[in-house]
Amino acid sequence: MLNSECILDLRHISKIFPGVKALDDVHFSLRKGEIHALMGENGAGKSTFIKIITGVHQPDGGEFLVDGKPVNIRGPLDAQALGIAAIYQHVTCFPDISVMENIFMGHEKTTAPFNRIDWKAMYRDASALLSRLGAKFDARATMGTLSVAQQQIVEIAKALSTNARIIIMDEPTAPLSNRESEDLYKIIEKLREEGVSIIFISHRFEDMYRLADRVTVLRDGKYINTWDIADVDNKTLVTAMVGREIVQFFPKREAHIGEEVFRVEGLSRMGFFADVSFAVRKGEVLALTGLVGARRTEVCEAIYGITAYDAGTITMNGTPLDHPSPAEAIEAGIGYLPEDRLKEGLVLRWEIAKNISLPVLEKCSRFGWLDVEKENSLAKELSEKLNVKAVSVQDLVSTLSGGNQQKVIVGKLLTSDMKVIILDEPTKGVDVGAKTAIYSIMNDLAAAGYGVIMISSEMPEVLGMSDRIVVMREGTVTATMETKNATSEDILKAAMEEWLWD
After folding, report:
1. What confidence tens digit (pLDDT) does each residue in 90-120 have?
2. Which of 42, 133, 456, 464 could form a disulfide with 250 if both were Cys (CB 3.0 to 4.6 A apart)?
3. Quick one: CA dihedral 168, 171, 172, 173, positive or negative?
4. What is the DSSP string of 149-176?
């Protein structure tokens, strides 16, 4: 039975940054041995709230209690001393050293009297932690050789090595497959049984229903409500998060589908994909789907010129593109929104304006010098068109929410005369409100005559947003179907090994 005693209690928390009140009278309580989901749109204040709990920021008002006693957390070390640890969606590790060293980084075990590192004790304790979490890899393994799911296990082990009683997990399932997510669920449930309290941040309702005991929603920096999981449903949560009822999650599109604009025939790359063929028409959304390992991203990277292909043809409006580079792909009218927006789509330390203008600097230049006024004007026009939530185009992209970062990348694509736009997992890691905004943008692109290729692993998204569906399995196309005639069972059957359906 869930312990009713609070291990963490925050009351009337506020935080003000220049020009914005990030948190306004926020409440949150965490019980011993509880998994408490924290939900809200990107920009709702979740990240600021977590940074206050971990000591990165100090609140401007409110009470902070641990074990019923007021505390003043002045920095991350204070939080660690109280047994608070955080695990983030994008694992921050040292890839070139061992798992053991990553686990004990910053709090290494030493021997007296010379404070020499006790490697044997560290290996013993690291191995015990990994065994406790059901890990199948050795503590001496190099961190960079592990999968993302395995690296997350190391991050959990690192938190436990500091005797953490409260673990914050920020979107831990976002980069994981369904099977990897299920493995993580089991680890989290085991930690709950051991009495560890967990704050679980996720945009995925399936995570919340699978794990959480309670859920709290924030919106625009304000506390909305807290529910027991048994007392809440999707409609209530969505309305609480976005401030309105979303009548139609996948908005109806009225785009006219025209003639073929783009085609790939027999595209192959040894060891990755073989004989991949499909076509896209003006105003059409073509979904490219499949399970993990289907090689959808690899195909689109080859189309865009990020990687090479060994055989096959690519044509735009009937004109062949022979092994184009990214610059040549852009010139031909192909745009690409990468799956990992942080590493491949944005320069986080740059302003919105600089990111948007990056592909077309020549358009924003005069006599070889950058025309800042023209750059800002272009960025402002596209930011307003895409409804990017920011104070100005001079805001750093790193300060934006995930959904708004996605919009900035779309803005980059629209600076050039595109005909086909490839969107690789466009709604990955963004909230329900941002998803509907991105879907509306996709509708607008299709209505404007763009051909849209959407890579997606989410079945409702595939069925709700596409006109046709191309299913891949292990680098080959296994089915192409009209969405109006497709079912989730049809897609799964084409995506999975045939023997599973015998």
Report:
1. 777 899 999 999 999 988 999 888 889 999 9
2. 464
3. positive
4. HHHHHHHHHHHHHTT-SEEEEESTTTTS
Domain that holds residue 403: 344-415
How many Å apart are CA 362 and CA 365, to the nearest integer? Answer: 5
* Rounded CA separation 470/482 (Å): 9
> What CA–CA distances, in Å, run from 333 to 268, 291, 321, 352, 411?
22, 29, 11, 23, 15
In terms of domains, do 356 and 220 share one? no
CA–CA dist 223, 220 (Å, integer): 9
112 plus 216 within the same structural domain = yes
Domain boundary among 380, 415, 450: 415
The DSSP element (H or E) to which 368 belongs, if any, is: none
The answer, as to whether pTM is greater than 0.70, is no
Last residue of a domain, one of 216, 242, 268: 242
Q: Which helix (H) or strand (E) holds 204?
A: none
Q: What contacts 234, CB < 8 A, 6 or more positions away?
A: 205
Radius of gyration of the chain (CA): 24
403 belongs to a structural domain: yes
**Residues contacting residue 448 through CB under 8 Å, at least 6 positions apart:** none
Whether residue 62 is found in the same domain as residue 185: yes
- The domain that contains 42 carries what CATH number? 3.40.50.300
Based on the domain organization, do 144 and 275 belong to the same domain?
A: no
The residue to which tokens 């704050």 are assigned: 199
pLDDT of 429-447, one tens digit each? 676 777 777 888 888 889 8
The amino acid occupying position 234 is: N
Strand ranges of the sheet holding 214-219, from the earlier edge strand across to the other edge: 69-70, 61-66, 6-17, 20-31, 222-228, 214-219, 35-39, 197-201, 166-170, 84-87
Counted domains in the chain: 3
Residues whose CB falls within 8 Å of the CB of residue 143, separated by 6 or more in sequence, listed in order:
93, 94, 95, 96, 97, 98, 99, 102, 151, 154
Q: Is residue 1 part of a domain?
A: no
- Is residue 65 domain-resident? yes
Same structural domain, 126 and 14: yes
